[in-house]
Design brief:
This protein folds into two domains: 3-224, Orthogonal Bundle (yeast vps74-n-term truncation variant fold), CATH 1.10.3630; 252-669, Cytochrome p450 (Orthogonal Bundle). It is built from 28 helices and 18 strands. Strand 12 and strand 13 form a beta hairpin.
Length: 675
């Protein structure tokens, strides 16, 4: 029985859905090696083929003919059908494929959303997808065999190719489209005889032949073309940088927003004593980096020197492609909100234990105050050891390493001073502590932590995660203490300097903790609405990592500018946080931005956790831990921040942190802290 003959009660996947399922490569979490333009043309070809099978259009070698302009009810098909109907001249399939190719991204988005809704695909942070193991093709096709819907599609296609099964017209189209972008050879082992059969299958259907010929002619062009007219990337004069008020304040996101407003979304800086720096800034470059970056950019090159400091090679931030996705999947449980929710008792205990050391009437340096609190919580949760005594050394070494080998504003020899060597020794001390407590006997009955995940991965595949990388991997959670602590410092500063919001957060906290410690399911965004939105606005105004550095591995055109292979670029993803067309009055702290109908965060311009495949793996853990900390601070203390006027002081390097002049003063302890 063909798909067209299936029972009316079953759900038939569209050609676009089947195409994406065929192209999905679970090893990389994205699609098989199909460049963006080729993928776009193929997706549009699938849509035109679907319209043809629905008797809305017909096509031959010379023309595409409208048969019926009646809407299909499909939100993907109908806008394209409307465009075809509105065209006064009769065009061929290649014309429509090239014209509609820019729409392919939205078509892919809608298709992936539907496959997720059908529980055929699972979506992962960083724009990765995998097949859902709970979805059976029976749910989609009304069958009874086990296996995912995607496996059913591939099995059906495999039978046509290898078992001489007479193909359904839809199968012919799918095979032809996938073959047009040369992906079948990555899915199946093909010999000469099989390739001849594939070519024969591709010519069986006139519709498939016309559309696939058009796709084949269209996808070849951009691979051979170079931009005929390219704009020169504008260069920002140094005096513009020096005189910029946001540069003087250390507000890098606002600085890059100013430069993008004057010079456009792609511009070049030439600071003294360093290589020229190309920046991408704005919502459109964010969108490009998020969706197309994996095809053109890689992180490995600029991190080579940094990872060598730790004796490592192939750490997670420096990996790209399938290796990066595999590592993310392996570590995802360790950075998940679910892992933190399962250990909230420990979080509450360690938070209160650290808070008990504070004294009413005393003032504390803002950044160090919050970093120490977060480390007191995070170190036991992630690596099951105490590290407060090592924290200062680890931070000093890490920040110097970033300044010398990543940001490169200091000479490298400054990492080799006697003082820095003493700070570096803290890494080995930390490693010894972790190894001591992570033996089978010591870990029996203990909740799993990130160190368990890393050590298990090393034991199961020492080539993928060698022992030489553990030095960095096991100290990374304490590096996370810095970023998370700085995020908390900005959030606390904003709470303390907005008394009305402080009182609303206090009310949320008192209600949550009134009858004991809340469980994870109790801490929903509805219950902590003000707390949640304050953190979102704090992350907008003060994103901890405002710029991502990448190297161009495949030449690309971004917003009309040709960027050649080997170029190092700086993606200022947070520049759009200060662009008035996205966030009106951007220097005003306004948590109502995130309420409907404004919903200003639902835009590629909001990117506090990075973009694309390197989006922060622990963002949901971070949101929960920040929320709990802010709530507990409001529940137990009244805290004032200085300076209290204007925006928070900023230290911009090596990442954004609360400036050294900021202090927190504990004016009141509202209730006793349980032992």
């Amino acid at each position: 029985m063909t798909l067209a003959e299936a029972e009316p009660t079953t759900q038939t996947l569209t050609l676009t859905e089947e195409l994406l399922l065929m192209l999905l490569n679970e090893e990389s979490g994205y699609f098989h090696q199909v460049p963006g333009w080729d993928l776009n043309c193929t997706v549009v070809g699938a849509v035109l083929a679907e319209l043809s099978l629905a008797s809305r259009i017909d096509t031959d070698v010379e023309s595409l003919i409208l048969l019926d302009s009646t809407e299909t009810g499909d939100p993907i098909l109908d806008p394209i059908l409307k465009d075809i109907a509105a065209e006064s001249e009769q065009r061929n399939a290649q014309y429509w494929i090239e014209r509609l190719a820019p729409r392919a991204e939205s078509i892919i988005d809608l298709t992936l959303e539907r496959l997720v809704d059908l529980k055929i695909l699972e979506h992962h942070d960083g724009e990765f997808w995998t097949l859902s193991r709970t979805a059976r093709h029976a749910d989609v096709f009304g069958g009874s065999e086990d296996g995912t819907a995607a496996e059913f599609v591939r099995t059906r296609i495999s039978k046509v190719i290898f078992d001489n099964v007479i193909p359904d017209p839809r199968d012919v189209i799918i095979i032809a489209l996938v073959n047009a972008v040369d992906v079948l050879r990555f899915m199946f082992q093909l010999d000469d005889e099989t390739e001849e059969r594939i070519e024969l299958i591709c010519r069986l259907d006139l519709i498939a032949r016309a559309i696939v010929d058009a796709v084949g002619q269209t996808v070849a062009g951009p691979l051979l073309r170079r931009p005929a007219l390219t704009r020169q990337i504008p260069r920002v004069p140094m005096h513009k940088l020096i005189r910029n008020r946001n540069a003087r304040k250390g507000n890098l996101p606002a600085l890059f927003a100013d430069l993008a407003k004057e010079y456009g979304p792609v511009f070049e800086l030439r600071p003294p004593f360093v290589e020229p720096m190309i920046f991408l800034a704005g919502p459109e470059t964010n969108r490009w980096a998020h969706r197309q970056g994996r095809m053109h950019l890689r992180a490995r090159d600029y991190l080579n020197d940094f990872e060598k400091i730790y004796g490592a090679s192939g750490i997670l931030p420096a990996l790209d492609g399938a290796d990066h996705f595999r590592f993310r999947k392996a570590l995802q449980p360790g950075y998940s909100r679910a892992r933190l929710e399962g250990q909230l008792d420990s979080l509450y205990r360690d938070t209160r234990g650290h808070m008990a050391t504070w004294n009413v009437g005393e003032s504390y340096p803002g950044s160090e105050f919050c970093r120490a609190l977060i480390n007191a919580e995070l170190s036991p949760l992630m690596i099951s050891v105490e590290s407060q005594d090592l924290m200062g050394d680890l931070i000093k070494f890490k920040e110097r390493a970033l300044m010398t080998h990543l940001v490169k504003v200091l000479p490298k020899f400054l990492l080799s001073t006697p003082g820095m060597k003493r700070h570096a020794a803290a890494i080995d001390t930390l490693l010894e502590r972790v190894e001591t407590v992570h033996t089978p006997a010591q870990r029996a009955g203990c909740p799993r932590d990130l160190a368990d995940d890393l050590l298990s991965l090393h034991a199961s595949d020492p080539q993928f995660l060698p022992g030489s990388n553990l030095r960095f991997a096991l100290s990374a959670p304490l590096i996370a203490s810095v970023y998370l602590g700085d995020g908390l410092a900005f959030a606390l500063y904003n709470m303390a300097t907005h008394p009305d919001l402080y009182e609303r957060i206090r009310q949320e906290a008192d209600a949550l903790f009134e009858n004991g410690d809340p469980e994870g399911r109790d801490i929903s965004t509805d219950v902590i609405d003000t707390t949640h939105r304050l953190i979102m606005e704090s992350m907008r105004m003060y994103p901890i990592v405002p710029v991502s550095i990448r190297n161009v591995m495949n030449a690309c055109v971004v917003e009309g500018y040709n960027i050649s292979e080997g170029t190092r670029i700086n993606i200022a993803q947070s520049a759009s946080h200060y662009m008035e067309d996205i966030f009106p009055d951007p220097f005003t702290f306004d948590i109502d931005r995130y309420l409907p109908p404004r919903d200003e965060h639902r835009h590629p311009g909001y990117a506090p956790y990075g973009l694309g495949t390197h989006t922060c793996l622990g963002s949901r853990w971070m949101e929960l831990q920040l929320s709990i900390n802010l709530l507990m601070l409001a529940h137990y203390f009244t805290i004032e921040a200085t300076p209290s006027e204007g925006q928070a002081p900023i230290n911009p390097f090596p990442s954004l942190s609360l400036g050294g002049k900021a202090k927190f003063h504990i004016t009141e302890q509202r209730r006793e802290i349980p032992a």
